[in-house]
């Protein structure tokens, strides 16, 4: 029986679709041995498969190779980076939501690239947001799917990598995907004029092979993110701009809130740390503290 290796690009209802690195995709079932070992295949897994029918593109997954990493949300393995997309306008950027995503990626040790779309609607807003997040240490890309500004740079940064694309509904995520990889032919959907909020148009997690060793994982649009696995005391470690000041506070274990002699608050007053980022940190800290208090 013919044996091959490949990467799982989609999983639906117990079937896994494995890309062989060329142009063939096999519809596979996972052998029962994985259930016995409590191991479930994930999108992004590198696997070995036995080909049952070359003509029909059918196979069985026989082995899951060791993972470099695995994300909890979105559920995906062997991710090199995340590309988080927000709009500068329509819908207005929810920076609390963006910061939640960045914290989640920091927790999962996945490098993040930020992409602000719809620059044709608000150049000044995009420039301000870029300054805020570049100050926090994140690479920022300002793009417009309408004028195609900045999209060449995005195409460059994904080459040879497995990239998770994420963002709220309605920010143009699928439009970015379509311009980078027209074959995806994703449903872009329309912004509801009444609510100015995006409809959920992406229905499942799927990897697209957009070049040699280059995969894009599109995820359903999110409107909220829970940080279940992070404690309030740990939150400060997932803000990269805080880390240079760790150990510089008057009190050991300072959480950069109401404590006097706080090096992070001093950096905030000097403009080294962005005000909106710090304010969102306090909101998230209180949320996690309340959750701990009530055992949620």
List its traits:
single chain; 296 residues; alpha/beta; six-stranded mixed beta sheet; 7 helices; globular
What do these coordinates show?
A six-stranded mixed β-sheet has the order 10-9-8-11-13-12, sandwiched between helices. With 296 residues, the protein is of the alpha/beta class. The chain has helices spanning 33-36, 95-107, 123-135, 151-157, 173-180, 263-269, 275-293; strands at 3-12, 15-19, 25-30, 46-53, 58-64, 70-71, 76-77, 81-87, 112-117, 140-142, 162-166, 206-211, 214-218. The chain is globular. The protein is built from seven helices and 13 strands. The longest helix is centred in the last third of the chain and has 19 residues, at 275-293.
Overall structural class, as computed from helix and strand content, comes to alpha/beta
Instruction: Name the helicity range.
Output: 10-25%
**What order do the strands of the largest sheet run in, or round the barrel if closed?**
10-9-8-11-13-12
Rg over alpha carbons? 21 Å
Note the gap between the termini. 51 Å
Q: What is the molecular shape? A: globular
Number of helices: 7
* Weakly predicted, low-confidence segments: 186-202
Task: Give the SSE order as H and E letters.
Answer: EEEHEEEEEHEHEHEHEEHH
| Main sheet properties | 6 strands, mixed
Say how many strands there are.
13
Average pLDDT score: 87
As a percent range, the share of strand residues is: 15-25%
Describe the structure concisely for a colleague.
With 296 residues, this protein is α/β, with parallel strands linked by helices.
């Amino acid at each position: 029986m013919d044996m091959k290796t490949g990467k799982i690009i989609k999983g639906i209802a117990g079937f896994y679709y494995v890309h062989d690195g060329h142009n063939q995709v096999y519809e596979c079932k996972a052998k029962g041995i994985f259930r016995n070992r409590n191991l479930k295949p994930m999108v992004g897994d590198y696997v070995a498969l036995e080909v049952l029918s070359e003509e029909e593109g059918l196979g069985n997954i026989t082995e899951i190779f060791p993972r470099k990493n695995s994300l909890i949300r979105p559920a995906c393995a062997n991710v090199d980076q995340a590309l988080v997309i927000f709009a500068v306008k329509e819908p207005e950027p929810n920076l609390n939501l963006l910061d939640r995503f960045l914290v989640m990626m920091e927790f999962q040790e996945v490098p993040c690239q930020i992409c602000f779309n719809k620059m044709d609607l608000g150049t000044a807003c995009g420039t301000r947001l870029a300054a805020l997040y570049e100050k926090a240490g994140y690479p920022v890309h300002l793009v417009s799917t309408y004028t195609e500004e900045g999209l060449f740079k995005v195409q460059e940064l994904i080459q040879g990598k497995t990239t998770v694309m994420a963002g709220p509904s309605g920010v143009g995520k699928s439009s970015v995907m379509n311009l980078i990889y027209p074959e995806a032919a994703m449903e872009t959907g329309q912004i509801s004029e009444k609510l100015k909020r995006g409809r959920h148009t992406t229905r499942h997690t799927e990897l697209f092979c957009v070049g040699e060793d280059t995969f894009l994982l599109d995820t359903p649009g999110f409107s909220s993110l829970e940080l279940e696995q992070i404690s309030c005391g740990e939150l400060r470690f997932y803000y990269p701009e805080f880390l240079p000041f760790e150990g510089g506070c008057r009190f050991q274990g300072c959480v950069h809130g109401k404590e006097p002699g706080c090096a992070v608050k001093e950096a905030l007053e000097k403009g080294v740390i962005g005000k909106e980022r710090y304010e969102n940190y306090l909101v998230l800290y209180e949320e996690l503290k309340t959750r701990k208090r009530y055992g949620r």
